[in-house]
User: Fold this.
Amino acid sequence: MNETIRKRKSIRKYSKTPLDEETLAKVREKLETLTPLFPEIRYTVTIADKTKGLFTQGSGASSYLVFRSENKDGAYENIGFIGQQMDLWFSENGLGSYWLGMAKPSEDGDLSYVISMVFGNPEEPLHRSLTDFKRKPLSEISDGNDSRLEAARLAPSGINAQGWYFSALNGKIRCYRKKPGFIASEKLGQIDMGIALWHIASETEKFRFTKESGVPERKGFIYTGTVG
Ligand SMILES: Cc1cc2nc3c(=O)[nH]c(=O)nc-3n(C[C@H](O)[C@H](O)[C@H](O)COP(=O)(O)O)c2cc1C
Assistant:
């Protein structure tokens, strides 16, 4: 399995020193190479700096990615999929990051604001061992056998809700997400699904995600699509 998936974690302690231009240039370069889940949905990712007063809540870090998207079905899954590529890239390249759902930019952009991601120089260990992940066992979030399920299980999710369910059969994985409840919103659940899908995609040679018809229903869950 992708090494970074097995050791990444949300970093919440950052050096106050802003990132240098060279590092920011590499981040911008990486942003040009991302693979969308749904290529037809327009999105933007910009780099913001909290000293401009963009956010209602800070974290001590000096840099943020701001994700915006066209309002279309699949937009939040698409942003989760795209953003998780950055989260793993940061972790692979010596930078800390975490998804920040509880923040809003004060400036409007062309597209609708979706979510942000903090990033910067970590002031705590960047990686952890597998035993330090707080995750549900595979048996609670999936059935069937597929080596990619473990990568999905390790995915981060808003408030660590892990509200996904994966049903694996004959090389396909049917993906369901929990119906939104009091705490876990629909939006977070959709972003979380996109994030887990990127983890699955990084373990898949030819990744395809489609909606099947006649998929068995799962009580309390919404079918999102099938990795085939
Ligand atoms: C969509 C999303 C939104 C999140 N929003 C916040 C947030 O607003 N504040 C925060 O401290 N962590 C936030 N997180 C980080 C999660 O709490 C964290 O990923 C989860 O607890 C699992 O921990 P790990 O990332 O270290 O594996 C968010 C994560 C996701 C995926």
Summary: Residues 3 and 48 are 29 Å apart (CA to CA). The mean pLDDT is 93. The longest strand covers residues 112-120. The chain has two domains: 21-120, 134-227.
